[in-house]
Amino acid sequence: MEVITDQRFRRTMKYIRALLILGSIGLGLLVLVVTGVLIYAKVQGPPPLAVPQSSLYYSDDGQVIGESNNGEKRYWVGIDEISPHLIGATVAIEDRSFYKHNGFDFKRIAGAALADIKAMAKVQGASTISQQYARNLFLEHEKTWKRKLLEALYTIRIEMNYTKNEILEGYLNTIYYGKGAYGIQAASQYYLGKNAADLTLAEASMLAGIPKGPSIYSPLISEENAKSRQKIILDSMVKSKYITESDANAAIHETLSFIGEHSHAVTQIAPYFQDAVKQALKNDLGLDDRTIELGGLHVYTTLDTEQQELAEKNVSTHMAKESELQVALVSMNPKNGYVKAMVGGRDYVESPFNRAVQAVRQPGSTIKPLLYYAAISQGFTPASLVRSEMTTFRFDDNRAEYTPHNFNNKYAGKEITMAQALALSDNVYAVKTHLFLGEETLVKTAKQFGITTPMEKVPSLALGTSGVKVIDMANAYSLFANGGKKVKPVLIKRVEDHRGEVIYEYEKENERVLKPEEAFVMTHMMTGMFDKKLDGYSNVTGSSMINDMTRIYAGKSGSTDSDSWMVGFSPQLVTAVWTGYDQGNPIEIVAEKSYAKKIWVNYMEDALADEPIKNFKAPKGTVGVYIDPESGLLATDDCPIKRLTYFIAGTEPTKHCIDHLDHDAEKPTEKKKEEKKEKKTWYKRIFDWS
Questions:
Q1: Is residue 56 part of a domain?
Q2: Alpha helices (runs of H) in 537-643, residue ranges in sequence order
Q3: What confidence category does residue 487 fall into, taking pLDDT thresholds of 50, 70 and 90?
Q4: Residue 438 has what DSSP assignment?
Q5: Which residues form the Glycosyl transferase family domain (predicted)?
Q6: 564-573 pLDDT per residue, tens
Q7: Which of 238, 562, 595, 626 is disulfide-compatible with 635, CB 3.0–4.6 A?
Q8: What gap in Å lies between CA 90 and CA 102, rounded to an integer?
Q9: Are 125 and 30 contained in the same domain?
Q10: Long-range pairs for 304-307 at CB < 8 Å and ≥24 separation?
Q11: How many structural domains compose the chain?
Q12: Cβ proximity of 402 and 395 under 8 Å
């Protein structure tokens, strides 16, 4: 028994000696590695401070249209020119142990790792101010091990070669505070109109919370989020003994006024368009704010500067200066989705809200082409007849009812064709068609056309009561214009990094989502709003634009109490225009109701002035016949009006119109009457005599 115990003891001691030897070797290697890293860091010396580079934005023809950072939004100030309140607030919330550690807070790292493991997700950060400053010296922000290793080396070099105050000064001058403000001086001037040295405790604690998420904690975006973040910072300052409880209480209740203006405003070409491009860089390409603003990117956009100038000119020309209506315009190439011009409002400086891509407004009757496309695909034709008269629809066992009205309460009082219903914008025809197809049909069709906003399954959806975005309507009509091929609004063609390497390039899709023959039948029907041959109980809705047109267009206007729309296209260009009040007030001035149409037709004419006049080409599977616009039947020589109308082959009318057979018949002369009288039968003559 003693022998076995002795053997076990010797074996155990052997393992212990092996572990001690391995541990010593490991520790020695670790010491060597750490020593090597420190020697390397010392030999390398102070890291070169990467100078932020402006990101440049180019138009479709290569012209520079914008620059993300022109030096007026970034100012370097010394540590003694920064409010002590701001310094305390930043250290308290970002890195309480900043003055104690040597670049890495290992206790904090362990705590963050434990929190992440418990949550099975990245929930807590552990980066020190030194690490964040090192990260800010990089133009690349990709999440790779190489970048993390280099960041760690930079952190060591920074800590070895700079004092804590120098590190803090650099950090506070490079951190991003949103809206193009880099550094605390730029942020102080943008948000509060004062220098960083003059910040009060309340102001400093508010600004210190922004860098965690400029799009979330900016007081100009969400006062509630900003105030909540401010309280957390003040509590941290109390715990770190920078301030007292009474100081914090006074600061949290102090009323602050924010300006939201840079000290030097910069005029840019197409500012609304450029904002949309930056959002696309962030949301679609996944780039962070710093890379977008200071990454030295070269962003090649789809903007046509001439068309942009024409769009802005026509908005200015055709909207009265005293009018308070707002406007949005999106113009696209329907073949590839390139956005050629964008207007998001009347004055970017007064209101940077981009109504072209952010506002959701009721489209009114501009939704009808999508409805009628669905009807065409289910057997309707341009000659399909539906009665136009005031109609009350009842639902849920007569417990609910809906009565759509036409403009000025005018109705045909008889059956009219789909072609005429579209040209006159007959609402009763639309609702009847919508209910016949089923309310779900238009909802699905809208998604098919790229409408991104939700559609409500209600009878009034046929009249455009569910909100849409202007850019989505331009995109939807592009599918008609290009024969049914899928497109999406494209703002960016290519992006290069600061080294000139391509990091993104747009690839055109070639998917067909509409049948070309059905798309063309609808396109030709949409030319009807400009054709007086379709006048009926009222004039066609595009009658006011006809005299300004020099080429064939297809389109549809629309209106609600607070919205005016005109969306239309040629084979080369599609444009959507909206005008209305931001708050949804009713448009009551008659002249203001025509702004959208005037802007649209004059812009289209100007933009296409140097382009060849092109007609819409009928694809295979369609046939064009002359019909009588009233009856929808094949026109005869006796019909006073004949309109060429296209149908899907096999669905065109086969019967001829008989409503006008005597229209041009010669009135009988007296001689002919006598001859006819003489030819009466004998019993008729006796009857006449008697």
A1: no
A2: 595-607
A3: very high
A4: -
A5: 62-237
A6: 999 999 999 9
A7: 626
A8: 18
A9: no
A10: 304/59, 304/60, 304/61, 304/340, 304/341, 305/59, 305/60, 305/61, 305/63, 305/65, 305/269, 305/270, 306/607, 307/331, 307/340, 307/341, 307/607
A11: 3
A12: yes
Beta strands (DSSP E) in 47-87 are 56-58, 64-67
Instruction: List, in sequence order, every beta strand (DSSP E) within 312-461.
Output: 326-332, 339-343, 385-388, 393-395, 400-402, 414-417
- What band does 275 get if pLDDT is binned at 50, 70 and 90? very high
Q: Is 227 exposed, middle or buried (0-12, 13-18, 19+ CB in 10 A)?
A: middle
How many whole angstroms from its chain centre is CA 397?
41
- Kindly state whether residue 470 falls inside one of the protein's structural domains: no
Q: Which amino acid appears at position 37 of this protein?
A: V
Report the Cα 584 to chain-centroid distance in Å. 20
Q: Helices (DSSP H) in 124-270: which residue ranges?
A: 129-136, 145-161, 164-174, 184-192, 201-207, 214-217, 223-239, 245-252
Is 94 one of the annotated active-site residues of the chain?
A: yes
How do strand 298-301 and strand 56-58 relate by DSSP bridges? parallel
Distances 671 to 451, 569, 678, 689 between C-alpha atoms, Å: 70, 58, 11, 21
**Two tokens, residue 421:** 């219903």
Question: CA separation (Å) from 124 to 109, 116, 119, 146?
Answer: 9, 7, 10, 22
* 129, burial (CB in 10 Å: exposed 0-12, middle 13-18, buried 19+): buried
Same domain, 102 and 139: yes
Residues 203 and 86 in one domain: yes
End-to-end CA distance of the chain: 157
> Is the Cβ–Cβ distance between 466 and 442 less than 8 Å?
no
| Domain boundary residue, one of 252, 270, 286 | 252
Q: Are residues 136 and 7 in the same domain?
A: no
Comparing 30 with 262, which gets the higher pLDDT? 262
| pLDDT confidence bin for 672, thresholds 50/70/90 | very low
DSSP string for residues in 464-524: T-S-B-HHHHHHHHHHHHTTSB----B-EEEEE-TTS-EEEE------B-S-HHHHHHHHH
Q: Rounded to whole angstroms, how far apart are CA atoms 554 and 349? A: 35
Query: Which of the listed residues 252, 287, 305 is the one where a domain comes to its end?
Result: 252
User: Is 99 in the same domain as 166?
Assistant: yes
Selection from 274, 333, 357 nearest residue 508 by Cα = 333
Residues paired with residue 643 on neighbouring β-strands, in sequence order: 627
Residue 136, token pair as written in the block: 């800010």
- CA-closest candidate to residue 74, choices 186, 149, 151: 186
**More confident position, 463 or 687:** 463
Helix (H) or strand (E) holding 564: strand 563-569
Residue 142 is predicted with a pLDDT of 58
CA–CA separation, 140 and 618 (whole Å): 51
Same domain, 628 and 669: yes
The CATH number linked to 206 is 1.10.3810.10
Which candidate in 68, 83, 94, 130 is catalytic?
A: 94
CA distance linking residue 587 with residue 584, whole number of Å: 9
Beta partners for residue 329, in sequence order: 343, 577
Question: Is position 137 within any domain?
Answer: yes
237 and 133 housed in the same domain? yes
Instruction: Collapse the DSSP code of 182 into the 3-class scheme (helix H, G, I; strand E, B; otherwise coil) and give the result.
Output: strand
Element (H, E) at 333: none
Q: Select which of 83, 218, 365, 384 is catalytic.
A: 365
Structural domain harbouring 669: 620-690
Q: Could you tell me if residue 39 is inside a domain?
A: yes
